[in-house]
Design a protein that fits this description.
Elements: H1 12-27, E1 40-45, H2 51-62, E2 66-71, H3 83-93, E3 96-100, H4 104-113, E4 118-122, H5 128-142, E5 150-154, H6 159-170, E6 174-178, H7 188-201, E7 204-208, H8 211-215, E8 220-223, H9 236-243, H10 250-254, E9 261-264, H11 276-279, H12 286-305
Parallel strand pairs: 1-2, 1-3, 3-4, 5-6, 5-8, 6-7, 8-9
């Protein structure tokens, strides 16, 4: 496996290896500080970023390398150079490329033309680096035995939903997406793919439209902002109205299991998708989750440059 382009490309063995190594990097960030000695990693972002940029630059530094931050408007790709040509040029200078952009097809094309590992740092379709950080945080709280537990995402069917469903399926979890019906529900193909993967791993995937029922006895209540980057502003009023019942409130948290936790990929809009008292309350693990963006990106780079992920 040369690249990490989509969450669904990972095998269960890959995920277990990545989480195990990330846990080690959480304790000793510089344990593999010679991995990228005298090497560079390109970090190309056409979307704004706080956590992904900080995590990836820090991860590269901890591995002994030098991060090279790139923006689309600073490259010739902004003047019409092809994605394929850009991939080939970056491959001459760097040992890996992490990209955060809009189109999944752009990431796929970079992967097809680069001779170095390409890592999806976020697209409109998927967010594999985030969901690995989510699951190492879950493991720290509940351990590796997740039998009998339910993990619920509240919101619309966006890129985080895709990653959440796919990763839960790979790990054999019972994962629920609680979304409005219709245009804000997850893509049918995403759901079907996740169900197929879940069946192979002893897990289950549900899409439901009743937030109270979804939250009942859940171990995790997870949400994201209602308006993602690139969402049409003209749809804001309609979308917020549809998502209002899926806001994570104190009442919704009260339905969760006694040891249930709240998670959010951040950034957050307190008072919109989540009550401030929930996200800043004792059941929230958002800061540990954010911390693990670095440990998991570091693990991804470490294993990809060593050719140790199987897919």
């Amino acid at each position: 496996m040369k690249d990490l382009l989509k969450t669904e490309h990972l095998s269960r063995g890959d995920v277990e290896l990545l989480l195990e190594t990330a846990a080690k990097f959480a304790v000793d960030p510089t344990a593999a500080s010679n991995t990228l000695a005298h090497k560079t990693v390109a970090i190309y972002m056409s979307k704004p970023s706080t956590r992904t940029r900080l995590a990836s630059e820090t991860a590269v530094a901890h591995l002994g390398g030098t991060p090279v931050f790139l923006r689309g408007d600073e490259l010739q790709i902004g003047r019409g150079e092809t994605i394929a040509d850009t991939a080939k040029v970056i491959s001459q200078f760097c040992s890996a490329l992490l990209i955060r952009t809009y189109s999944q097809s752009e990431v796929d094309e970079l992967g097809a033309n680069a001779t170095i590992p390409v890592i999806n740092g976020l697209t409109d379709y998927d967010h594999p680096t985030q969901v690995l950080a989510d699951w190492i945080t879950i493991r720290e709280k509940f351990g590796s035995d997740i039998s009998g537990r339910k993990f619920v995402y509240f919101g619309d069917g966006n890129n985080v939903t895709t990653a959440w469903l796919m990763m839960g399926a790979i790990l054999g979890a019972h994962v629920v997406a609680a979304t409005p019906e219709g245009k804000w529900a997850p893509d049918n193909q995403v759901v079907e793919t996740a169900k197929r993967i879940a069946k192979e791993n002893g897990g289950s995937i549900e899409v439901v439209h009743d937030p109270i029922a979804a939250a009942k006895d859940a171990s995790v209540l997870y949400t994201d902002v209602w308006m993602s980057m690139g969402d049409p502003e003209a749809e804001r009023a309609e979308k917020e109205l549809a998502l209002k019942p899926f806001k994570v409130t104190e009442n919704l948290m009260a339905q969760a299991a006694s040891d249930g936790i709240f998670m959010h990929c951040l950034p957050a809009h307190r008072g919109e998708e989540v009550d401030a008292s929930v996200i800043d309350g004792p059941r929230s693990v958002i800061w540990r989750e954010a911390f693990h963006r670095r440990t998991t990106i570091q693990s991804i780079i470490y294993h990809l440059v060593r050719g140790e992920l199987k897919g």
